[in-house]
Amino acid sequence: MPRLRDGRDWTVLAACLDEDPDLFFPAGERGAAPAQLERARKICQSCPVRGWCLQLALRIDADHGMWGGTTPHERQRFKSRSRR
Ligand code: SF4
């Protein structure tokens, strides 16, 4: 994965570094989970490394959680469209 010009890993710029991980990886899909994911999505929208985060999620086939402002379902749809 890419590194910053000063050699640091790109994740040091992640907007979620100090956020509650449960927002990005809620337990299950019901109850508080949809609201948690929407809060996470808002954080992702201002993240300077969002594109790299999404690239990583697609590469490792992350099937849980919010990555690059996308849910697992959204990433699956993206992958399906890319294969066509
Ligand atoms: S895009 Fe979202 S999940 Fe990815 S590093 Fe940024 S804030 Fe974190």
TrEMBL record:
The UniProt entry, under PROSITE patterns, shows: 4FE4S_WBL (PS51674)
Q: Name one GO molecular function term.
A: DNA binding
Q: Where is this chain's protein located in or outside the cell?
A: Cytoplasm
Q: Name the keywords, alphabetized.
A: 4Fe-4S, Cytoplasm, Disulfide bond, DNA-binding, Iron, Iron-sulfur, Metal-binding, Transcription, Transcription regulation
The UniProt record gives the binding positions of [4Fe-4S] cluster as C16, C44, C47, C53
Q: Where is this region: Disordered?
A: 65-84
Q: Where do the 4Fe-4S Wbl-type domain residues begin and end? A: 15-77
Q: Which Pfam families match?
A: Whib
A single GO BP annotation from the record? cell redox homeostasis
Sorted alphabetically, the Gene Ontology cellular component annotations on this record are: cytoplasm
Is Metal-binding one of the keywords? yes
Grouped into one coarse class, the protein's main location is cytoplasm
Q: What does the note under cofactor report? A: Binds 1 [4Fe-4S] cluster per subunit. Following nitrosylation of the [4Fe-4S] cluster binds 1 [4Fe-8(NO)] cluster per subunit.
Q: How is it modified after translation?
A: Upon Fe-S cluster removal intramolecular disulfide bonds are formed. The Fe-S cluster can be nitrosylated by nitric oxide (NO).
What is the required cofactor set for this protein?
Answer: [4Fe-4S] cluster
Q: Which family does it belong to?
A: Belongs to the WhiB family.
The record's listing under HAMAP family reads: WhiB
> What's this protein's function?
Acts as a transcriptional regulator. Probably redox-responsive. The apo- but not holo-form probably binds DNA.
Descriptive protein name: Transcriptional regulator WhiB
Provenance organism:
Nocardioides pocheonensis
The gene designation is: whiB
